[in-house]
Description:
Elements: E1 24-25, E2 31-32, H1 61-68, H2 73-80, H3 84-89, H4 92-102, H5 105-117, H6 127-135, H7 160-164, E3 176-180, H8 184-187, H9 190-200, H10 203-206, E4 210-212, E5 215-219, E6 223-224, E7 230-231, H11 237-246, H12 250-264, H13 275-283, H14 285-322, H15 327-333, E8 336-338, E9 355-357, H16 360-371, H17 378-397, H18 411-423, H19 427-431, H20 449-456, H21 460-467, H22 482-492, H23 495-509, H24 518-549, H25 562-565, H26 568-575, H27 579-587
Helix pairs in contact: 2-6, 4-5, 4-6, 4-13, 4-14, 9-11, 9-12, 20-21, 22-24, 23-24
Amino acid sequence: SNLPAKQPRDGPTGPKLSAKRPRHHCSNGKNCEPGENRTGNNINAIGCHRNSSHATPSLSSDALFVVMSFLHPRDLFHVSFTCKTLRDMVTTKMVVQSALIHGGHAMKTMDELHALMSSRSIHVPSPIRLLRLACGKVCEFCISAKVNHVRPSLGVFACWECVTNRSARDGLFGLTKPWKRGWVRYRKNQKNRDKYNAIFEHPRIADTAIAYGMNYYIWSRHRSDRAGESVGPIIAWDNVDGMANHFASANDMKNGGIDSYLTSNLNAPETNSYNEFNETYTDMQQKAKAAVQEREEMKRARNRKTKENKIAKAEKMLDDLTALIELPFREFALKRTVNKRFFDASAKVSTTPCICIGTPFVDGLLMPYIITPSKMKKKILKELAENINNKLRLITEKKLLTMDFLSDSDPFEAGLKQYLREKLPNLGALFQEDTTCYRVIKNKDRICHTFVSFLESDQLLSALVHMLDGDISPVLLAVDPSASIARSAIKKYKEPTVAKIATSIWFRCLKVNIPRSKETYRNFFTATQEEFQKVLGALEEYSAWVRDKQEHQSGRTFHLNHTATTSAYFVELLMNKDFNTVHRLQMRDWDW
Length: 592
């Protein structure tokens, strides 16, 4: 009750107070009324007192012109629309120079326009329209479809749909219209044909009349942009017949008649109006090439530096992980090389691994963190190290390399044990790539997840055979009865040939099933021995068959074609005793 009475609002019945004028705050801290001393000598171009230490001096028009000539086309476009003064300062030379120097789609637009401007086939674009064309992103007619550069032969920023769509709504669609050479007025009258040919072959028309099949596709009608400026080719579809009817003969058209008609009847631009664009484009070619080359070199240098930084981060991460690996495996488990493909120009930093690790299952675990090293945290690093140690520890815990699970009394197991110890003598041999085998063993097929799964399920023999890519065919040459037959065959033929035949037979037997136990291996080995004896016997019969036909040269020893003997097809032909086919196969590359 002691509060003062509420004052009524200003309204239709109450008096209205005048609005308070905002003060202008200068950079020197003083307040001045709007317009106060705006025309005085102590006020600069932005309205602040000159005696202020924070005042920004105004730039002269010459300095602004120089600054604008170095801007990117998109920045120049933004500057030109800040005020009319800056918009009027934009010139054709400035736009062409900016587009050519900075490259990209703007440079492509200038290239397409120069092809038409040099032949004077289109209306000369103003500097502002030229700037719009250099910075365009969508079709200027439908305002929806994406466009990268001006349309060749038309010089407008149009999409393919607007150019080719034959619609009755010509205001938006159907920018071109077909003029058919199958029409009677062209095909039946030689005089008219000469006149039409003179029109379509004229330099100012030929570049915009697109010939396709029996038709010429021509600018459908004269158009102007939203600013009222004429755009596109200087001749339209209706002008072709009008021009042909205007002249009595083709000779009148060739002797400067078409040029005068275009200037007087179609208001085509004068010849000298094209000079500024063409001269600037020609003068800037060398500078543009140098700028593009410099820009590409800088881009390559940045990309290479980025990739080198990523490799350094990945190396540091792997060094930290190596310190957590147990000592017997630390030397081998994280052997790595830089991925050569990572430095290719087409390789993406975000998807291409920069480092390849020699141990396949470790490479698979670390691949996401090699591609993106920032994902690696201390906790994840410890978990990965523990996972790797647990899997590699199985090699020593199960005494894989001692091979005590193979018996010395059984001929097959004894021969296999001796061969495996020769191929895998120590721990380092498990991590090394073996290129001496007939089937070249790639590192990706060695210590991988399959090998680890064999160890975890106590299938030690399968794990060792997997390390040799499943090839234990040399045991055939060391275990009787196939060994004695192989020794006699080696005396007649080259040793590599017999070894390759044994390998082909071994993998021919393994096509149906993949062995997992010692008994399965023994069964497959026994089957392979039987087939090996049959094939060597068939090979002896084939040699006798060749000598009976007397197709060998006297005084020379018969040998087999090494290329042919490596194939399972050759082995199958020998087993079927198809000697004619075998002989044709051998004659491709006869080896004496």
